[in-house]
Every structure is written in C-alpha cells, then in structure tokens.
Automatic annotation (TrEMBL):
<protein>
    <submittedName>
        <fullName>Ferrous iron transport protein A</fullName>
    </submittedName>
</protein>
<feature type="domain" description="Ferrous iron transporter FeoA-like">
    <location>
        <begin position="1"/>
        <end position="74"/>
    </location>
</feature>
<dbReference type="Pfam" id="PF04023">
    <property type="entry name" value="FeoA"/>
</dbReference>
<keyword id="KW-0408">Iron</keyword>
<dbReference type="InterPro" id="IPR008988">
    <property type="entry name" value="Transcriptional_repressor_C"/>
</dbReference>
<dbReference type="InterPro" id="IPR038157">
    <property type="entry name" value="FeoA_core_dom"/>
</dbReference>
<dbReference type="InterPro" id="IPR052713">
    <property type="entry name" value="FeoA"/>
</dbReference>
<dbReference type="InterPro" id="IPR007167">
    <property type="entry name" value="Fe-transptr_FeoA-like"/>
</dbReference>
Length: 76
C-alpha cells in the first residue's frame, strides 16, 4: 500500500522508498522517512494535497505525489 492511501488516524510502517528519485529520497531520509519508520496520517488538505503525517514527536507535510511513491504496511 502507498502512504497516500492511508486513512485519517491510520498508522503504518514505511517499507520502501526505492522508487523515489535519489535527491528526494535523500531529503526524505533527512526528515526521518526511511524504511522501518512508523508514521500516522494526521490529515489531508481539502483537495487531498498535501498530507500531514506524524513521525515520532514531529509532524511533517508531504506532497501527495511523493506519498504515492512511498510503500507502507498498515500497523494494527
């Protein structure tokens, strides 16, 4: 499943960012969005872009087109 498909309040663990261009993958890594990291979708903007996600004690904004490239698996 993709990060972009999470529902509000749904938690997931990042499994892959391999399909992301290297420059963007590096920027995501600096922000902590790497495989194994747990994230939660906080909310979507009214038109669905961007997405606000929670990562540990931080909240980040991610564009939907980037979120579509990040593979996650839902956490129970």
């Amino acid at each position: 499943m993709k990060l972009s498909t999470l529902g509000r309040g749904q938690a997931a663990r990042i499994t892959s960012v391999h399909h992301v261009p290297a420059v963007i993958r590096h920027r995501l890594a600096v922000m902590g969005l790497i495989p194994g990291t747990a994230v939660e979708l906080v909310r979507r903007a009214p038109l669905g872009d961007p997405l606000q996600i929670r990562l540990d004690n931080e909240q980040l904004i991610v564009r939907r087109e980037i979120a579509k490239l990040i593979d996650v698996e839902a956490m129970s």
